[in-house]
Here is the input.
Amino acid sequence: MSSSPAPAHPTTADVLSGVDLTGRRALVTGASSGLGEEIARALTAAGAEATLAVRDVARGEAAADRIAAATGRVHPRVVELDLMSPASIARAAAAWSGPLHVLVGNAGIMVPPESRTAEGWESQFMTNYLGHFALATRLLPALTAAGDARVVLASSNAHLLGPVDVEALAGQAEPYEPWSAYAVSKTALILFAVEANRRWSAQGVTVSAYNPGFIQTGLQKNLPTEMQVSTAGAKTLSEGAATPVFLAAAPEGASAGGRYFENVAEAPVAIDEIRDMSRPETFRGVAPFALDEDTAAALWALSERATAAW
Here is the structure.
């Protein structure tokens, strides 16, 4: 008897089949809409106690209401988190009590007009990477208390365009170019997974990164209309959320540390030197520079110095 072929784009229902998350607690950033809300919904449906970490609490409460109504499960909690604000990050981390089994760093921005924090950090680097670094490191006691925690970080295939120059970041010397800054922030998240997993795996914390694929969400709001992903070319929210939910909750996710996944599988190392926007196959896989252990360690050291006073 033949088995059914695996779906081309698995959904959250596919990866959570048979998974019971009762008793596990999850924190999802950027969960007031779109992919973050879908990740939180899927985890809640499987029995997890979810907390939505959001900039706009009213929108977060509306998302929590939708999740509770859709799943019939415990109403998610909502906490305020502005990843551009060190004070907000510190408050959110300090307010957490008890073990944390799953941290999904989903929040992000893409190619906005140039803006910087009071400390001088470019907004995409701060929101996408450095804010999540500060949050995760401050929540490490809660993660280790869980005994078998997972940290899952939202990268992108755009990272293939963005090697990280730690010295340039330290001096903040590069002029602002939106796409380059976005790509660097997404590479930084993979490097974070590499180094965090090296440091934390012995404490029972698995850290991985992923590319959700092309999805039509509010992340695209700064793009010209002609560059936005069409509905026909995009994954559904459930398909886009499948990879982070797989890493956060499926049994196989426990052995995914320090690696980068796409479409619910570990991505191969990308060896193509030329990236062509008209050829999607040149934007698959993980760049060797995103897995470089020396760069990961140097970025970690910079990040610790940058966030030490927060």
Remarks:
- Residues 1-5 have pLDDT under 50 and may be disordered.
- The radius of gyration is 18 Å.
- Residues 34 and 217 are 6 Å apart (CA to CA).
- The longest strand covers residues 205-211.
